[in-house]
Amino acid sequence: MPNRRILWIVLFSTLFLAANTQQGNGTKEAIVKIYTAAKVPNYQEPWSSSMRSSTGSGAIIEGGYILTNAHVVANQAFIEVQRYGQRKRYIAKVHAVSHQADLALLKVEEEAFFEGVKPLTFGSLPKVEQKIVVYGYPMGGSTLSATIGVVSRVEHHTYAHSGESFLAVQVDAAVNPGNSGGPALSNRKIVGVVMQMISKSQNIGYLVPVNIVKHFIKDMKDGKYDGFADLGLGTQKLENPAIRRYYGLDDHISGILIAKVVYHSPLAGLLKEGDILTAVDGHNVENDGTVEFRKHEFTHYQHFVDAYQMGEKVKFDIIRDKKHIQVEAPLKYVADDMYLVKTTRYDTMPRYFVYGGYVFSPLTRNLIVSTNRNRLTLSYLAGKWQEEDKSEVVVLLKVLASDMSRGDNDFAMWPIDKVNGESFKDFKEFYEKMKTAKSDYIVLEDTDGVKVIIDRKEAQVKQDTILNKYNIEFDRSIDLRE
Question: Model pTM?
Answer without folding.
Answer: 0.90
